[in-house]
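sorry for the late reply, my laptop died twice this morning and i had to redo everyting from scratch. anyway the thing you sent over, i finally got around to it. pasting the sequence first so we're on the same page, its 322 residues, then the predicted structure underneath. double check i copied it right bc i was rushing
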Amino acid sequence: MLARGRLLPPHARLPDMVGAVPQDWTVAVVVVTYQSSRLLADFVGSLEAGLAGLGSWRLIAVDNDSDDGTVDEIARLAPSATVVDLGANRGYAAGVNAGVTAAGAVDAVLVANPDIRLEPGTVARMVETMIETRAGIVVPRLVDERRRLLTTLRREPTLARVVGEAVLGGGRAGRSPRWGEVVTDPAAYGHRATADWATGALMLISSTCAQTVGTWDESFFLYSEETDYCLRARNAGFPLVYEPDSIAVHLGGESGVSPPLYGLLTVNRVRLYRRTHGPVAGAAFWSMLLLGEAVRAAAGRPTSKAAVRGLLRPAAADPRGC
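ok and here's the structure:
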């Protein structure tokens, strides 16, 4: 779902905190890295202005066993940062969990990709929104290097939505709450709203939400872990709020252009749906997803060809698998 407007009636606001970040608020910035050395200079360079106005913040970098000098680059660029070396490539969720553990007692954790570039004041506004709305998770407006809007908001996966995407294509289906999972209407990004989930490139998570919802599911390794976490947060009473006045640049994930990554993303969508809806509904979801990707694979799309190969593997095709 995507709901417009405030989450609380006026009497539930915290008037002494609206419009300003409490000076005793602390935020831990958790960046999960893998072969990220070339991205870090601009990421670290954006932090001071992006986090201006906060009481205090600290950087925690969690590395998935990079061999391109990522850890050395972090130490050079941010000598005061806490660096956690996982010793193996254990995936994004494992990195987030390690970072949250290393953060200790803070008011919120800002989970970030290394290809994020914060705009000035971005995080302070996210904190204000979290306080005003009592959100568990706040996400900003993300744009690409050319300042074009990235459609980052999502609706809960359903059979109707996977059918809509298979038949209509993701862009057209996304304009309808019934038929699309990705919120594609640009007008939806012009106002504060709640969403079922959002892409995980930059998320502010309150400490209360983190403590209540628990750890990110490391079995996904990459993709769908943020879907799972946001839906669990929502079900526990911690909504996700989109704040359009907070802006960050995202250089872009590779899942849309890398066939192996897109294949993993597609299979993980099935895994998540089966876990929450059972083998029968999961089989229907798998079938419609396979149909949609097969049509596009037949048209020559390399990412869809990888998705079809992934979906036809025994573990993915078996209703009890994944």
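The longest strand covers residues 240-250.
thats about all i looked at so far, will dig more tmrw
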